[in-house]
Design a protein that fits this description.
This protein has 15 helices and 11 strands. It is α+β, with helices and mostly antiparallel strands. β1 and β2 form a beta hairpin. α10 packs antiparallel against α11.
Amino acid sequence: MLPMKEAVLAPGVLLRAVQTKKFKNSLLSVTFLEPLTAENAAQNALLSKVLRRGVRKYPDLSSLSAALDNLYGGSIEPVLRKKGEVQCIGFWGTFLEDAFVPGHTPILEEAASLLGQLVLDPAGDGRSFLPTYVESERENLIHKIRSQVNDKLQYSLSRLREEMCCDEPYGLDKLGSEESVRAITGPRLYDRYREMLETAPVCFYYCGSAAFERVENAFRRAFAALPQGKRQAIPQTKVLAEPIGAVRRFQDSMDVTQGKLILGFRTGGGFRALEEIAQGLLFNAVYGGTTNSKLFLNVREKRSLCYFANSTLAQNKGVLQVYSGVEFSNFAQAEQEILTQLTACQQGEITKEELETARRSVMSSLRTTLDAQGRLEEYWLNRFVSGTNFQPEDLAQAVERVTVEQVVRVAQRVQLDSIYTLKGKEG
């Protein structure tokens, strides 16, 4: 077990530190949690990109890169994530561990200081962002929004969420819309930035070998200027337990040679408690989350109805998506077989071998989390968003306890909500 310690640095500001000597680099991150809204999504998406352009001490990318080079090739990059209906805005940085620095020169404090400057001391006059940075990053964001259509699978998954959850924040793109990006002005963005600093819950994270007291002191000094006003509670994701009305169908047509079939399900509630998450993970692995799942072995391998067929579970939101690549002529058959395999799960047609193979897959994934700093940081961010703090090893032990009856009960709560298809253009 990798020891994790935490400290509340101020109301709504939490530091979590994982202590380990497994890695050559240490990892630091800072994340602000904002409710995902149509009004603020684009501005939040733009913020970290503008902040990353420079600080007052290093006002451009060239001088900022030189400062990182002086920290023995360290890196800090903006990160934007969507967790349920929560938008996570921040930075993620890696730096050499002291043991690998010439002379064992300590660089944690300097690294944390630079991270703090990126968040709290952007290039400019202290009252606004540099207009050229706002303008160029605004155009970059518009280009990124437009380019999402190039990845047809991710585009299709996004379209299903957009249509299925059209009246819920979960249906919003974490990047915002092109229209809302174009409406952003420098003053408006700076106001949003100040509001986020003052009101959003904050999670600091560290993974490395430094003593916890040293880590805490480094973050306290680096972020001493962070406003200490009353912060909002961690945003909550609203869970719609079951569909409203009949199954809805949506379709797009594009110049594609392979169709995409996406089925969206409601799972009867979210998965937040330890045992709930363990049961949800194992159900998803049995149904469609692995290469030994019912979807993969039956829809793809035995019946050859899809190029691929997988499922993914949004735990906080309680939404299950099945995604597949399909020949246009096989849409109806593939859809029916996907639902047939769900029915099999609901009726308890899960062999001991299927259950244990799925269990091994989930356990392997959890072990991988312990061996990858990025996945470990993602894991603890998920815990912060859900307001929990159990270890990956605790989750692994809970997975070991899951029975086939519990997997069946999870499956029996799953109900089809919406179906999205991406087809080729006629003619």
